[in-house]
Request: fold
Amino acid sequence: MVYRYVPLLRWKRGERTGLKNVSAAGAVDTVPLFIIGSDQIKGKAATKSKGAQTAADVFAKEIYDAWGARPFGLDASALTAAPGTPHPIQAIAASCNALGATLIPATSLTASLIYQTAVAAVNNADQRGVILRVDLQELNSAANWFPNWTIPVGQTDLVADFADIVGTVANMTAAVIHSFQHLHNAGQWRTVTTAGTSMPENFGGFLAGLHTIPRDEVRLWTALANAGLPYRIDFGDYATPPIAEPPPAIAWGYPINVRYTLPQDFLICRGVKTTGFGGVDMEPQLIGHAKSIVAYPQRNRINCWADDLIDQIAATGQGQGNLETWVQIAINRHVELVRSLLP
Reply:
């Protein structure tokens, strides 16, 4: 593979299953970056057969079960440390090392000093480097903040994270290419990656049926990859929309929507509510979405766990599961497709 793929994920349960079913080929040069909050890392109380498990041990086991010893990034800056104690990322790193999971700590310039110190400590102990996420303004002002960056540039993976403004950034092609051509320390960073997502926070503006949303993150990366930069530019994206953390619970009756990744677009199967006038139960909607995907002329089916499951649901009307099942399907299909299309 010429380019690395960096999918950004939140480590929800559906994401874990989708990632676990990624093929060996789909995992080559794929380095997931997990952005976690307190909801994604919890300990387990003691039972009759097992003792209590720390949050760090539970998280490390989940990572190893889904991704094995392959490298992954972890941004745990949203977690907090109890007064006088190390930041939790240090315990997570230790638990991952004990199992053989390969953690690379990730941070941003706005992360707390406690977290930045912990990230440096993890790197000093493990010597795997650090992932640094920057926005467009920080990318352009690197000469100003770099003197305060304590990790050696050759041990730093720089991720230009354009989040949900990637469409706006992609429309400034000439200016963005200029920014990357004149990137401070260009060619010295261990890697440089772009990331972002074109997925809207919700689909309230769409009527029921099939819709496509252009993948502007692909358009931006393609322009940069073809710009003759003096270094390799890797591809990243948000494998799970939206950028904002989803609410802890959603009232029953919401529209049943499904996302399916195409080479240049997202295919959105927009459903209807499950209650009220015109409401349809979730199960038949999910089966209908599977049939719509299978019949879509530009589907670009690939050999992966997700596409096999979609075909099965469409053909038999069974196995449609629930919305979490379709998170699994969306993540697996997305990672497999992107990896298969990257040179």
User: Anything to note?
Assistant: The two ends are 6 Å apart (CA to CA).
